[in-house]
Amino acid sequence: VADVCEVHHELRQFVVKEAPPTVFYIPDFISEEEEAYLLQQVYQSPRTKWTQLSGRRLQNWGGLPHPKGMLAEKIPDWLEKYCERISSLGAFSGKTANHVLVNEYKQGEGIMPHEDGPLYHPTVTTISLGSHTLLDFYRPISSQGAAGPQTEESRYLLSLLLKPRSLLILQDEMYQHLLHGIQPCSQDTLTDRVVNLSSAGALPGETLPRGTRVSLTIRHVPKVMKAKLILGRK
Ligand SMILES: O=C(O)CCC(=O)C(=O)O
Ligand SMILES: [Fe+2]
C-alpha cells in the first residue's frame, strides 16, 4: 500500500493485523530493570519539569513543538538511548526521534480522545511503565450530519492493551485519521474489542486493576529552528 510507512523487517512480526494500518505492539520491549531505572529517572527530574493538567501530569523533553519550528533542547542520556533504539527500527523513516512526552496517570486518570496533529512526523511510539492501560480509538466526527447524533460511544472503534514494558508504534491511518484516548477508570474488563489480547498475553473477560502508569511518547519533530536564526546571524 502506497501510504504505509516503511519499517525494518524485524518489526513486521509485531504488526497487529486486527487493527487498521498500522499498529505494532512489542511486548517486553524493555526489561524490568530498565523499567525501574526509567521510573527512577522520571521521578528524579526537577519538580519544575512537571506540568499538572486535569487528570494527568507531564514532562516535556526536547523542546516545545511549534508551527514555526521547535527550539530544540538536548534530551537527557537516559531518554536519548531509547530515542535512538526506537529510531533504529525504522519507526521514523530514517529520522531520529527528538521529542519525548512523559505522561503520568494515577489510577482512575485518563486523557480525552484527541489527535496528535501535524507538528510531528506521523508516527508515535510509546513505552508503558508501571501499569497497563487501554488505549481507545475513535472515528473522527464526520461532517455528514445525516447519520444522526454521533456519541463518543458510536464513534468508538477498538482498544489496544498496553502492558508495562511494551512498545507501541502507531502510524498511517491509526495516527492520521483516528482519535485516541484513555478512559478515566480504575480497572479494565477486557472484551473482544481489545484487538491485541493474544500478543499482550491476556484473555477476554479478564479484569485488570490499573495502577499508576507512566508513558514515554517518543516522536520526531521535523521542523526544528536553526540556532543561527535565533542568534540573528546571516
Ligand atoms: O499515555 C499514552 O499512552 C497516550 C499519551 C498521548 O496520547 C499523548 O501524549 O498524546
Ligand atoms: Fe496522543
UniProtKB/TrEMBL annotation:
Keywords: Dioxygenase, Iron, Metal-binding, Nucleus, Oxidoreductase
Cofactor(s) essential for the protein: Fe(2+)
Top-level taxonomic group: Eukaryota
One MF annotation (Gene Ontology) recorded for this entry: dioxygenase activity
GO CC aspect terms: nucleus
SUPFAM superfamilies (UniProt xref): Clavaminate synthase-like (SSF51197)
Cellular localization per UniProt: Nucleus
Major localisation: nucleus
PROSITE patterns according to UniProt: FE2OG_OXY
Family: Belongs to the alkB family.
Protein known as: AlkB homolog 6
InterPro entries hit by this protein: AlkB-like (IPR027450), AlkB-like_sf (IPR037151), ALKBH6 (IPR032862), Oxoglu/Fe-dep_dioxygenase_dom (IPR005123)
Fe2OG dioxygenase domain: residues covered: 96-222
